[in-house]
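Need tokens for this chain, all 869 residues.
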Amino acid sequence: MNPDDPERRPEDYLEVAKSGVRSPRGSLRVYLGMCPGVGKTFAMLEDARRLRSEGASLLVGVVETHGRADTEAVMAGLPVLARKLLTHRGTELPEFDLDEALRLRPELVLVDELAHTNAPTSRHPKRWQDVQELLDAGINVWTTLNIQHVESLRDAVMRITGIRVHETVPDTFLENAAEIRVVDITPEQLRARLESGKVYLGERAGVAADHFFREGNLRALREMALRFTTQKVDAEKREFMRRNLIPGPWRTSERFLVAVGPSPHSGRLVRIACRLAQAQDAGWLGVYVDSGEVLSVEAGGRLAENLALVRALGGEVISLPAEDTAAALLEVARRENITQIIAGKALHLSWWSRLSGTGISERLQRDSGDIDILLVHPGETTVQEQKAVTAGKNYSRAREWGLVLGALAGVSLIGLLLEGFIGYRSVALLYLLCAAMAGLVISRIAVIVLAIAGSIAWNFLFTQPRLSFNMLNAEDVVLLFTSLVVAIVIGHLTNRLRHRELASRKAEERARALYQLTRVTSASISLEQGVRSALAQVEQVFSAQATLLGLSNSGNLEILGGPPMDKKEESVCQWALEHSQPAGRFTDTLPQAAIMALPLSVNGQITSVLAVKPTNDQLASPLLRDLLETFAAHFSVMLEKEEYQRSSRESVLRERAGEFQSALLDHVSHEIKTPVAVIQGASDHLLATNLPPAARPLVEELRQAAKRLNRVLTQLVALTRAEAGLIEARIEVCDAFDLMREVAENAGSDRVVVEECDLTFRTDAAIFETIFSNLLQNALQHGSGPVHVAANEENNQIRFLVTNQGPPIPEADQAVIFERFQRGKNSRAGGMGLGLPIAKKFAALLEGEVLLSSSDSRETRFELRLPQH
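Here are the structure tokens for all 869 residues:
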């Protein structure tokens, strides 16, 4: 190795190996434009017409002409797929017919408007998911897309144009595109097209020109489209350099973490993290810290959407329970080697957080050390979003302040009733006890407020002078401030212990659920019992019906355990199995389904599906989703264990059967060979005497029959010993011509023609002679004329060819000719179909192979290939 060469990583050589593997997945071409009206669909259809003129098979899956005459003209003559009509709320909606496109399987399908949202009853919510299924089926796709529909650019587009884009395509989907073509015109040309009615018609064109199609907007969108394509080209360049081991700065130390929560602003943070990571070719992950706060159904749904967005954009998701959000984020950052943390800037901190510096952003900045902190402005909030954010918090805070006021009033009333018996100073202890107990049910801030309010109430109601905030006794002043400090400290510690107890309880429940699942399945004596116990655990932990399905011998899904399912639910499981992706409820595929289907991998292959039918929305929680996926992984382990045990039992049975078969054949062959040898010897002796002419043919036939029987027994024993692994190759240097000539001489036929060669190779001479002898005997018995035997060297292999003249081997026989006891239709009498199976099995002992090279009307040629050691 040249010391000047740069150091190579194993990943570099892996990229080189992958580049030579052709993927069965279809190819994706995206026609990208800065906005509607630049001519994306027209350019796609023009390219399709040229491709069709070259004889390619293509289909217009769905194209939106929007009434433009030039687009309709260029589409004329192309095969168009009929739309599928879906009914929603009494209205028929024409949609792309994905199933028909999959059935027709053309080479190329044109799918317009990639970011389109499908009708609610469609298989996939988004059209890009339809395209994904076409690509997975090996069908090439051309599609169109505007830059504002790229998921990571949605916020930037809104700031530029003031329009919120709801239909987006994940960046990870576009990363897999084989080609992105920019359809570009200048803003002046586009506005001219708009004014001439080639983009929108009527009043709509004027409104668009004054708003979205302003010249400043168009220039910014054009720059974004060109920059996005440049990043794609740069990524392809780096990929090329990696595959060709060209030196370059491939490694990067940057790694991003984004804090994710139920806030609608988290989506913007996720997209910013994705863009920063892509710009620096860095890894990134999204972290959700469950602090124990009870989320409403709406907040839980937003949290699930935000975490799903992280996965869709290519990030890794981590969910963990913790009381201190900032400390948990920093702990994950240090464990995962994070260099930058992205969090939302707190605009409305409480007075206590401002004074104490306990806000999450302040804590991150203060305790981050070498980790960089990027605080992002949350952006503008609509009235609906503000209500969605504050509704749950307002309810929770109102409940807490109600508890504070009630506790304060209750203790004050009790103190007034008991003051005559216990004294006014003892009443201060009641306020102290109330603050300490309140830490078990309310937040830290509420506890502090309660402690301060209790001290003020004691001063106002019980100290002299009464109903005044003045204090005449110095002991009362000391008692007041001492009680206040003690109440705050005890209440804070009690609240902290409560949060830790909740987090510990959640972790304990998770560990207990996994332990119970492991225990009941480990104690099961059969797969049926294990599946039944595991499904019962799923139903108990997640309050959901669970069914396990697996592939039957016919290739269809069958229920291995659990309640039956209807056809619609079975179709969801079938899709999850075929595409190796979760489907159904709480997923992006068939979300209207009642079940969630999780594919299970067994020995690297998806062969089973776990179907869960929840009775509530608790599986929208990321922590419970992670726990369910862990359960699914345990199901996979259980099925793999059963598969291993079954294979082990079959292996033992095969080994014992092989030993028995070998012993039986040895015994039978020994018992038969003795009388056969006697018959053959007696026949030879009789032929040497003066036999009557009529008896001589009978004795000769008897002699030949004994030889055939002896040969069959020898072949059976040899094949059985080889299959039982009782034969070991002894490798030595051999001369190819000498071995072929020796086998030809032993064949005892003058029809064999051995071509001279000068080749030496390493092999087992005895095994080679057995292989070649069987090939030669097969050629002599089933052919006519001379049998040519030759050898040559090719691609580090020694090729031995045995060619005979005779009738061709039918195609139906070629598929089974190397199986035992299989004889071709044109085979002559005298064989049992063991010669070629023996040759093939013995060739495997030498790490070689025997194959039928060709068979036509003129000749049949068998080939033996052995490695050139």
